[in-house]
Amino acid sequence: MLGKNHEAYEKNYYKKGSFLKELLHRFADDEVAGLSAGLAYFFLLSLFPFLIFLITLIGYLPLSQDAVLGVIRQYAPGESSQLIESNLAQILNHHNGGLLSFGIIATLWSASNGINAIVRSFNRAYEVEESRSFIVARGMAILLTVAMVFVILVALLLPVFGKEIGLFIFSTFGLSEQFLTAWNTARWLVSGIILFIVFTSLYFVAPNKRLHIKDCLAGSIFATVGWIAVSLAFSYYVSSFGNYTATYGSLGGIIVLMIWFYISGMVIMLGGELNALLYKRKVAK
């Protein structure tokens, strides 16, 4: 009887409650801030193995090292991108044949730990327990990591091949130069589309809950737009106002990087909370 009363109360609460108020309530109750800090740690742990893997892999692809670093410079705060580039150059100076193998193993293990942290937070958002076995959960985390690596590679390759495709269409159909300008602009929108695909896949697969793709779209849009906006705004703040080097010395770049990862983790988890809240309200109708 008590269970039925609680269920009825919950349905009525999700029907009538203020959406923003409930989202803020869930933010506090589900400890999004604390979980984002843990996620930032896993991001940092997997960053350099992931970059080692990418930089080593581009030796077999029609890409330059600068193309990979260019993506980082596009969003990362100035001090962080300098830190990443200098440390990566130092690592690559000691290049050896096993670097790619190490990068793959370290990336898969470290990044899958980060995915596991996201899975736990999403399960909390949907109020479900993790019933999948360790092997299934870890396998899913590794598959998601591999998928993200593939998607990022596509995002890097498209600007290279996109230019060639645009020139081919331009010359074949005798289009105006305005087409090339529009095409070049559109090519750089690919990064946003790629992010949207990654977030949608993450929100769909990670929770231990049977969902439809449409149940994940709102959070994916929020996370895509939010992450790009927050990253660019934070980068502007760091370059224009924030002088972390004066406060933290040589650790300034690491502090900025950790704050960026922390904010990124919070945006990702908020997207999951948004999806979970919308799902609860849909079920309560």
From TrEMBL:
Record has Glycoprotein as a keyword: no
Record bears the keyword Transmembrane helix: yes
InterPro entries reported for this sequence: Virul_fac_BrkB
Localization terms from the record: Cell membrane
Keywords for the protein's UniProt record, in alphabetical order: Cell membrane, Membrane, Transmembrane, Transmembrane helix
Membrane topology (UniProt): Multi-pass membrane protein
Membrane spanning residue stretches: 39-61, 99-119, 140-161, 186-205, 217-238, 250-272
UniProt-listed Pfam families: Virul_fac_BrkB
Name of the protein in question: YihY/virulence factor BrkB family protein
Organism: Metabacillus herbersteinensis
